[in-house]
Amino acid sequence: MITNKWLVVVNPAAGGGKAGKDWTEIEALLIAHGIRFDAVFTGRRLHAMVYAKQKIEAGYNRIIVVGGDGTMNEVINGVFAQKRIPTTEVMLGMISVGTGNDWGKMFNIPSEYAAAIKTIKNQKTFIQDAGVVTYNRNDKTWQRYFINIAGMGFGAKVVARTNRLKDKGKSSPGLYLATLFTSLLSYRSIRVRFEIDGNTFKRKVFSMNVGIGKYNGGGMMQIPHAIADDGLYSITVIKRMGKLNVIANLGKLYNGKITTHRKVEAYNGKVINVDSPSLLQLETDGETLGHSPMAFQIIPRSVKIIANGISA
Fold first, then answer.
1. Is residue 132 predicted with pLDDT exceeding 60?
2. Does pLDDT of 171 surpass 70?
3. Number of domains present in the structure of the chain
């Protein structure tokens, strides 16, 4: 049976427990804005994916995510896992309570709760691309959908270390940046072979990003040339770079000028394959996944989200 209520998926652990603490306030604002909803609360990894799949199959087609980019990623995977309706018939809104909230920056989604709820109520939708990656973990092949950025190499190592600290209860807007500096001390660039739409490249890679959105790492614009609905991945490859050079150019990760650096290459493409003699780590939308070999395919205009405009 189709329902006219929203499904609100709440991750109480998001933002170091902030989502759980602020839920009473968020709930009151939703009610005050006349939004009729049923709420579910996650209690473990991938719980949001399970809820999204089950509830869409039960008749919900409007979902509000209360959490961070990782929670949204899980919901997206639930949207693609369900078989009741096309993915573009599920409307997704976001109330950001994570530590990075990078996906929402692309669409100018307000961080203030009342403003975010007003944006949801306005229901100005945008159909964006989605990505799907196959990768390896524990000698098995896995698959994951994503709507922002897949990071490999150094960026994935920083995310993995950041997530371990989050699991221990540490959370702050500057956590990623702090972890970046500590991870830099021991990291070594990796030889990588990658193909973009059949064209082969071999590089010694410090970090590599494949994405639909521009931002990750708590506001870093690692893929400044990304367009969310052009049916193409945007790719940034940072080649082997000295530690002091990395530190000296951090500003370019925030102002969108990273691709002007002589050690950085930018590409666009639909099908990407990545392999390496050493294991190249992978994360998508801030979720630590596995390692190479990896294969990416784009799914053009397949996710309906509520936006507040597109960032330049």
1. yes
2. no
3. 2
